[in-house]
Specification:
This protein is an alpha/beta fold. The protein contains 13 helices and 13 strands. The chain has a 7-stranded mixed beta sheet with strand order 1-2-4-3-5-13-6, with helices on both faces. It has a 4-stranded antiparallel beta sheet with strand order 9-10-8-11. A two-stranded parallel ribbon has the order 7-12.
Length: 467
Amino acid sequence: MADAAGLLATELERLAPDFIRLADAIWETPELCFEEHRSVVAQIAVMEAQGFHISRGLGGLDTAFSSDAGEEGPIIAFLGEFDALPGLSQEASVAQPRALEPGGNGHGCGHNLLGAASMLAATALARVLEKAGFKARVRYYGCPAEEGGWGKGYMVRDGAFDDAAVAIGWHPGAFNGVRARSTLAVSNRSYRFKGRAAHAAMAPHMGRSALDALELMNIGTNFLREHMPSDARIHYAITDAGGSAPAVVQAQAEALYMIRAPELDEMHDLVARVDDVARGAALMTGTEVDILPKGGASNILPNAVLCEVMHRVMMRLGPLDISDKERSFAEAIRATLHQSQASDCKALLEADALLPVGDGRLPVHLGLRLYDGRMAQGTGSTDVGDVSWIVPTVECGTATWAAGTPSHTWQAVAQGKSQLAHRSMVRAAAAMAGTALELISTPGLLDEARRDHALRRGGRDYRSPLV
């Protein structure tokens, strides 16, 4: 194992420059969900050059693919993303908002780094397995449309992950550590009300207001909030208010809802109740409502066995080391953040697995968050959750951004090609590949992870949130 670990470190160092260049190239061509064609072409070209076999069009999606190396043994899967966000165009390495293209796209969630690091981990691991003689297959999944498109859900529904033994991923951010937490299951649904237009003054009795129906639905949903799980969330945007003429009874109105709950079955139950509220609003106003599913994602089923393995690997990697230039840029970014003093105090006082209290937290987290076996409940949502219902899954985070940087901001985009981003991207690849190597080389670990997965699933059926 020690020899294999040394080989892995050598391969990661040798391969890193190629994948850093790939990450930067994807940052420079930010593409929105389901439109990541250039990013996919670039990733496939790199993996083909590394000798991986490519499978395209997974889940019926043009921008979903997988790449495989090896012929025998369990399939070790690495998860990658590469979609950007609208309206976040930003110049790199500049600590002030400065759009490259007004209104353009930007990698505000670090997905240019995410896929590249997972590819680096997969490629380095494949080389080590070949040299060390371990039996395993290595697979990289190119997963599109995480930002609201829920691409992995389509891949899961198509059976793309059914033969994988384990799935390993990561996410850029502001801390280093195992992501030992669940997320909220989510369903996106449009509620489209249809009424009857009329003159609002001369013949109001002839009209049936779709906007009234939509407003009543929103009121009914607000009353529902008192009677749903405390960790659940419901939020909406009115996407069609029916027009701008108040003298016309609105004949159509529409809202897009996001309905979230800690567990997949709780989310499905809550969706049914919101649907009933919409139908009741239509009944009260003499209108009709069409309910249109717009995708969704399952909650993550965390895996304690895999988290423990990944935490051990990250402990062995030790603290991050940054240059004076990286520190100065992080301090410049932090000066633009509207942080409270309390949040900085919390960061300084948070216990760390590698560093004493108060050290190495600001302006960049250099240490490692503690992991004690407990799992937190997150409030966001990701389609990694759907993968985790099918196969044991683990993720880590690394500090690609200055401490306190929120994702989906110009500050995150500005740091996407920084030396810190590159350094932490390679650290993430080392954590993922090291975790995979330990799982492959330690008898019984994969079986333990499967047992933990079965316990957390608890015999429940996976019901796709896409419908």
